[in-house]
Amino acid sequence: MKTKLYEKDYCLWLEETAQLLREGRLRELDVNNLIEEIEDMGRSEKKAVKSNLKILLCHLLKYKYQLQKRSRSWLSTIFEHRDRLEDDFADSPSLKRYFDEVFKLCYQKARKQASIETGLPLKTFPMNCPFTFEQVLDIDYLPE
Asked: Residue 107 in contact with residue 129, Cβ under 8 Å?
């Protein structure tokens, strides 16, 4: 019965699960789906960090290597994704470790994306990230 509600009405399942937890009625919980949801939440947070980091790195690269096309839009995107990462790290400091873990992979993907978006050859963008972790997250840093 518990699993059927999860499949039939997700929002109602969430409300009822929260109520059961508040009331301490643990034996009535749909434990398997609850575990799955908690694990999915962690994966979602990590995906958001990767996505924001890739976008941020791509725009920093474009800003550095395509000077003639710099725009307020790029500055806005850089600010927005730094702000999102800062909020994520404030809410979940452990995500900072994940940021460090995926930085190199995200840079390589951002490098490729920057090449596609600018039309510049991939070799324009260095193999190793020209920005430190601190620079990437520094709200006032812009590559010149």
From this structure: yes
